Amino acid sequence: MSEHVTGEIVSETEDPADPRAFFTLVAERVALLIRPSRVLDFGSARGDFVRAFCEQGIDAYGIVASGVIDTVNPAIRGRLSIDATSATTKRWDLISWSGIGEHLSQVNVEAGIDAICKATDRVLLYSTPSDSGESRQVNRRAQANWASAFADRGLYRRTDLDLASASLWASIFERSPEAISDLVQRYEEWTYPMLVELLDDNRSSVIEAMRTLRVALSHGTELVTTSPELDALKIKHSEVAQELQETRHHLLTCRDELIGSEAEIDRLRQKLQAEIEERDRLWHECQSLQRQISNKRSSVGWRIWNALVWKLDHGRQKRAKR
Amino acid sequence: MNQQDPLFSVLTPVYDPPIDVLQQMIDSVRSQTFDRWEHILVDDLSPSSSVRDVLRRAAGRDSRIRVIERTAKGGISAGSNDAIAIANGQFLALLDHDDLLSPDALEVMARVITEHPDVDYLYSDEGKIDESGRFFGEFRKPDWSPEYLRSQMYTCHLSVIRAALVEEIGGFDGAFDGSQDHDLVLRVTERAKEVVHVPSVLYYWRVIAGSTARTLSAKPWAWDAGRKAVQAHLDRIRISATAFPGRVPGTYELQRQLPLDYRVSVIISTRGTVGSVWGEQRCFVLETVRSALAATEHPEIEFVVVYDPLTPERVLTELAGMVPRGSLVLVPCAGSINSSRKRNLGSLASSGEAVVLLNDNVEVRRPRWLENLVGPLLEPDVGLTGARLVDRDGGIRCAGYAYEKGGYQSPFRGLNDHEARLISHTLVNRECSGVSTACAAVRRAVFEHVGGLCERLPSSMADVDLSMKIASAEHRVLWLANVELFSFDSFLEGLECSSVQPSEYDLVDARWGVAERTYDSYMPSY
User: How far apart are the first and last CA of chain A?
Assistant: First the structure.
C-alpha cells in the first residue's frame, strides 16, 4: 500500500452513543462467530477496536493516522502503527476495514482494498451509511457498492453471520470459490424471506396508513378554528359548492337527454330508412306492374281480345235496342 | 362458387375412433354443398389398422382428401400441427374424428367470410348427436364474448380460423392437450382483427362414453389444462387475475386484483327501512354496509349514503360507527322518491374512480365482491359490470338482462340453486346486454359521459336505459357470476323500484326500441 493512504486516517462516527461499548459489542460478536487469531484494524482511530479485540483474547493490531499515535492509550500504543504498507505484507485472519474508505479518494480506496484483500481472506466491513452527516467523508458509498468492490476481489458476504445485534453497519466478507449459481442461491435464500416479510408488512402498513390518512384528513377539517371571516368564507364556500353541485347535476341530466335524443333520432332514422326502402320497393313493384300492363295492352292478343269484347258489347247493345 | 371463394382446410386428428363413426365424419365433409375444400386426416398411430384402411380408401376415392400416418404417437396437438403444416387453405376448419359437419357448413362460412373480409376467426352454433344418430341439444351461442371465453370454451365447434394467423401464433401447444382448442382460440382471439359468430348449427358433436360432449368430469385433466390456458391468456394480455376451477367441470372462475389505491365509491340510497329476513328483524342498509365491508379487503372504499328525511337518526349514527372514519359521505335528499335522481346526486358527491351502485336491501354473499366487481373496469373497453343476485333461498333474481321477444327480460329469474347449476349462463362471467343496478359498477368517466341514470325513469327501467347507453357508447357490459349478493324485498323499495309506469316503458322504447327486438345477441338460447 502506498504511504499516502495512511495519511488521511481520522476518527470515525459510530452509531452507538458510547463508541467504546460499540467496539466491544462488535469485537465480542466477531470473536464468538469466527474466532480469529490475528486481526488488523485499518482506520483504528484511537485504537478502541484493537483494545476491544485484545480484550477478547485476540492478537490485534491497528493502523492509525500519524497525528494521533501519541494520544492513544499507552496500554495499546505498541499495537498501533502508521505503516500500512508493512502491515499488509503479512497475513491476517481478519482485517477490519472500519470507516476508512469514506475518507479516501477513489484511487486510494481501490489501492487500499487491493492491499487488504492480498493480506487476508476475511474482512470486517464497517461502513457508515450515506446519510450519516459526517462532513469529512469525501467518498461515501452504499453498502452494496463496498460489497461489489470486495466481490471484484473474490470476497463475498457471509450471509450466515449476523452482526446486526452489534451494528447494522457491520458485515463480514470472506473469500469464496463459489460458483455464481451457488452464490446467487445463497443471497436469494438470505434476502427473499426478508423481502416477503417486508412486503407483507408493507401491504398491511399501506392499508393501515391509508385509513389513518383519511382519519387525519377528516380530523383536519374539523380542527379548523372559527372566526367571523372564516365563518363567512365557509358560508360562501358552501353556497358555491351547492351551486356547483346543482350545475353538475344539470349537466348530467342534460347529457342523458342528449344521448337519449340521439338514440331516438337514430331509431327514427332507421325506421325512416326502412320505410323509404319499403316505399322504393313498392314503387318499383308498381312500375313493373305498369310495364306489364302496357305490354299487355300493346300485344296482338290484347287488341284481338279488345276487338272481340267491343263486338260482343256492340251486338249486345243492338239486341237490346231491338 | 368462384376462385374468390376461400379454400378451407378441414383438419382432423384421428386416434382409434369406431370405424362407422369415422366413415360418417369423412362423408359429412365429402357431401358439402361447397367444394373448395381439402380434408387432412392425421392418424396418430391408432392401434387398429382398419382405421388406416378407411383413411387410405377415402384418400384413394377423393383427391381432396390427404392422409398423414404418424409413426410415433404424439397426441392431439402434434397431430393437428402435422395437418397445419401441409394445409393449403386460407382458412382452417377444425373437425374431430367422431363428429359431423352439416352439409352447408362450409358454404355458410364462405358466405360470411365474403361479407367480413377482415375476419380472422368464425364460430358457429352446434348440436349434438347420440349413439343412435339422433340430433339433440342445440347450443345457440352468444355473439363474441371474450369474458365468457375466459370462463368456458363456448365457441368450440365449428371453429374456422385464418391459416396465416394460426401460423403466426405457432399452431397448437401440446402443453394444453385436452383443452388445446381452448388455448388456441384464446391465442387467436388475442390477435384477431375480427371475430364473427355465425348463428347457424353447422356442427354436430357426437356424444359417446368418455366424450367431452357428455361430461367434462370424465376428463379432469382436460379441465385443469383449460384452467392453465386461461391463466396463460390472462398473463399475456396483462389482466391482473387468477383463474380457478369454476363451479362445474369445464368452467373457470376469475379472481381479479384491484390496485390498492384505486378509489371506489359505493352509492346507496336509503330511508333506513326495517324488515324481516330469515326470521330476524334487520335494518337493511346497515346489513348491506356491514356485509359489503366484511367481504372486501380493498382499503380505498367510500360509502355515499343518500338518505331520505324519514331515515331514523340512529341508523345514520350506526352507519358512521360502522364505516372507517372519513369513508362515509351522507347526502340528504328530501322530497323525492326518484331512485335515479338520488343515485345521481350520490355520484356527484362521491370521489371514486369507479362508482358502485348498490341497493340498500342486499347482503353480500361471497368474499372479494368489490375486487371482482370493479376489477374488470380496469380493462378500458369495459364500461359496466353487474352481479349475480339471488333471493333468500339462493334462487336466481337477476342473471343479467336480455332484450328480445319484444321486451326486456330477466332470464333465469326464479330458477332455484339446483336448476341454475345446470345452466352455464347462470354460473360463469360473460358479456350481456344489461345488468341490474341493484349491484353494478361503472367507471366514473363512463357514468358521467352517458349522463348517469335517466331521472325520467325512477324505476328499474333506468337499469335498462343505463345499460343501453353504455353499450351504445361501445363499452362492454359484463355480468359477473362470482359477485353474488342476496337481494331482499323491502316494502318501500319494492314500491319504488318494481312498479314500472307505462310512460317509462314508452320512453325506453322510444330510445332503444322494444317491439322490434326479437333477438338478444348475448342470450340467444334463452
Answer: 157
Considering only CB atoms, B450 lies closest to which of A207, A218, A259, namely A259
Could you tell me if A56 and A84 are in contact, meaning their C-beta atoms sit under 8 angstroms apart?
no
What cell was used for A110? Answer: 481501490
What is the ipTM, given to two decimal places? 0.82
Q: What is the pLDDT of residue B23?
A: 95
Alpha-carbon distance of B138 to B124, in angstroms, equals 11
Residue B103, pLDDT > 60, answer yes
> Model confidence over A258-282: pLDDT tens digits?
999 999 999 899 889 999 999 999 9
3-state helix, strand, coil in chain A (%, to 5): 65, 10, 25
- Of the candidates B348, B449, B469, the beta carbon closest to that of A248 is on B348
> What Rg, from alpha-carbon coordinates, does chain A have?
49
Nearest-CA residue of chain B relative to A212?
Answer: B325
Enter the C-alpha cell of residue B417. 340453486
3-class state of residue B208 by DSSP:
coil
Chain B residues lying within 8 Å of A214, measured CB to CB:
324-327
Minimal-distance CA residue of chain B relative to A217: B326
B325 chain-A contacts, CB cut-off 8 A: 211, 214-215, 218
Q: Residue A258 corresponds to which amino acid?
A: L
> What residues in B contact A248, CB-CB < 8 Å?
348
Give, in degrees to the nearest 5, the angle at Cα B321 between B318 and B322. Answer: 85
The helix (run of H) or strand (run of E) holding residue A142 is: none
Residues in a beta bridge with B201: B125
What are the grid coordinates assigned to B138, written together? 342445440
The answer to whether the CB atoms of B469 and A215 lie below 8 A apart is: no
- Whether residue B510 contacts residue A267, with contact meaning beta carbons closer than 8 Å, is answered with yes
Instruction: Name A155's bridge partners.
Output: A175
pTM: 0.70
pLDDT of residue A203: 67
Which of B509, B343, B508 is closest to B437 using CA atoms? B343
Which residues, in sequence order, are CB contacts of B244 under 8 Å at separation 6+?
B227, B252, B253, B254, B255
What grid cell was written down for A282? 313498392
Q: Name the residue type at position A96.
A: S
Higher pLDDT, A177 or B302: B302
Q: How close A199 gets to chain B, by Cα (Å)? A: 14
On whether any CB of chain A is under 8 Å from the CB of B300, the answer is: yes
On chain A, the residues whose CB falls within 8 A of the CB of B449 are 255
Handedness of CA B187, B188, B191, B196 (dihedral sign): negative
- With contact defined as beta carbons under 8 Å apart, do B161 and B119 qualify? no
Q: How many CB pairs under 8 A join A and B?
A: 77
Q: In the numeric block, which cell numbers belong to residue B34?
A: 361447397
In one-letter notation, the amino acid at residue B469 is K
Chosen for mutation from B296, B298, B325, B474 (greatest number of chain A CBs closer than 10 Å) is B325
The separation between CA B505 and the C-alpha centre of its own chain, rounded to angstroms, equals 28
Give pLDDT, residue A109: 82
**What Cα–Cα distance (Å) separates residue A27 from each residue in A156, A165, A261?**
20, 12, 84
Q: CB–CB of B510 and A267 under 8 A?
A: yes
Q: Quick one: DSSP state of residue A120?
A: B
Q: Which three cell numbers stand for residue B237?
A: 394480455
Shortest distance between the Cα of B88 and any Cα of chain A, in A, equals 43
The minimum CA-CA distance between B89 and chain A, rounded to whole Å, is: 39
Q: Output the pLDDT for position B517.
A: 75
pLDDT at position A1 over 60: no
- The answer to whether B263 contacts chain A (CB < 8 Å) is no
Hey, is the C-beta of B506 within 8 angstroms of any chain A C-beta? no
Of the listed ranges A226-240, B20-34, B323-337, B363-377, the one predicted with least confidence:
A226-240
Structure-model confidence comparison of residues B204 and B210, the more confident one: B204
When comparing pLDDT for A164 and B259, which is higher? B259
Please answer whether residues A257 and B511 qualify as being in contact, where contact means their C-beta atoms are separated by less than 8 angstroms. no
